[in-house]
Amino acid sequence: MEGMNQMNDMSAVVEADRAHVWHHLIQHKQFETIDPRVIVEGKGMKVWDAKGKEHLDAVSGGVWTVNVGYGRESIANAVRDQLIKMNYFAGAAGSVPGSIFAKRLIEKMPGMSRVYYSNSGSEANEKVYKMVRQIAHRHHGGKKWKILYRDRDYHGTTIAALASAGQDQRAMQYGPFPDGFVRVPHCLEYRKQWDVENYGERAADAIEEVILREGPDTVGCLILEPVTAGGGVIVPPKGYWERVQEICKKYNVLLAIDEVVCGVGRTGVWFGYQNYGIKPDFVTMAKGVASGYAAISCTVTTEAVFEMFKDDPTDPMSYFRDISTFGGCTSGPAAALENMRIIEDEGLLDNTVKMGERCLSNLQALMDKHKVVGDVRGKGLFLGAELVADRATKEPVDEKQAQAVVADCMAQGVIIGVTNRSLPGLNNTLCLSPALIATPDDIDRITDAIDGALTRVFG
Ligand code: PMP
């Protein structure tokens, strides 16, 4: 009790943080002169820090996660009730919320069939990589073991997930990496790599070129984000996905869609791939599944993939030889079920489409006003604005200037994001991902803050 009372004194909390917490993503030297940021409370779209300052959160908990907003008592209650009844059992056992959530999820994903639980986006993707490797061993005589990933995409923080990072700055200090991960070009038309009319098809053809170079009999899987997140909010151009699907079919390459960011409503449909009529073999998801109220991730497969792991009575190793300890936590699916109910009952997919359109049109107006805004793009409530020093050459602004825009918005009480030390020389895209509950006023306040910040930083 004494510890808790002591911790209610916010200056003690901040000092404990400064002394002992190793923060994600930032250099600690700055905490010699400024306090580490500690977020104390949240309600709806707003959070309050240890100094009592109120912020409008335009990034859903920093990294596109709190889709249904803060302070949801019904999720807390669902988790509480479940924890009291049965908090955890792992290994080969299932659970009540795990079974029901899997059924509900699959109802939203025609063509998909099986849900494998774990607890982070990285882990969900690693499960795909392990499944692909096991399929290679069992069905292709050890061939088809390579995994293609795309420049500017990101699939997680573990060493194998980083082997598939299309963001060099995230990976550059952590090699050597495992073999068999091969990069294909990105598809951002604003940063053109080919001077052609059908850019989407051309960018997809580049994947075919890599498959042919590597040898189709060596390539087992292609993993892609439906809309690239931390790599700069890249909405694939028209024609891209149709061609990608054809190529995968032609060369018998399994298609894995990383919905860790786009999944569960972010783009205005349940899953980003559903905007494009894609038929994936694997879908991974994490952040929005339970909006950060519990740690949960899912690797969802088709029945055909599941069938490839069918028991062979002569081989006791003929199953997916994997476990995730905390894949047995029932808090995850209990929170996920209530999260899904909220999205349905509050019509949050429709709201996402409407608010996304408003936000995009506000950003377009900023582009008309500020020549530093070179490109704006987005799908649903997942948006980006790329800042350039020169519109003709598209030379990116210095990353310090992009960060100054973020800091200015923060001073105005609005938290926005920016591509963060991930792409050398290209950390110049402001990122927005407000909760799916955003109102027109919230959206206008966010873009007004950016407007003011651009004026102050660039004149
Ligand atoms: N995939 C994508 C597209 C992501 O953006 C992230 C995290 N930012 C991950 C995977 C990894 O998720 P986690 O941090 O939960 O491991």
UniProtKB/TrEMBL annotation:
Family to which the UniProt record says this protein belongs: Belongs to the class-III pyridoxal-phosphate-dependent aminotransferase family.
GO MF annotation list: pyridoxal phosphate binding; transaminase activity
Required cofactor(s): pyridoxal 5'-phosphate
Superkingdom classification of source: Bacteria
InterPro entries xrefs: Aminotrans_3, Aminotrans_3_PPA_site, PyrdxlP-dep_Trfase, PyrdxlP-dep_Trfase_major, PyrdxlP-dep_Trfase_small
Keywords tagged on the record: Aminotransferase, Pyridoxal phosphate, Transferase
PANTHER family, per the entry: AMINOTRANSFERASE, AMINOTRANSFERASE CLASS-III
Organism, scientific name: Aliigemmobacter aestuarii
Protein known as: Aminotransferase class III-fold pyridoxal phosphate-dependent enzyme
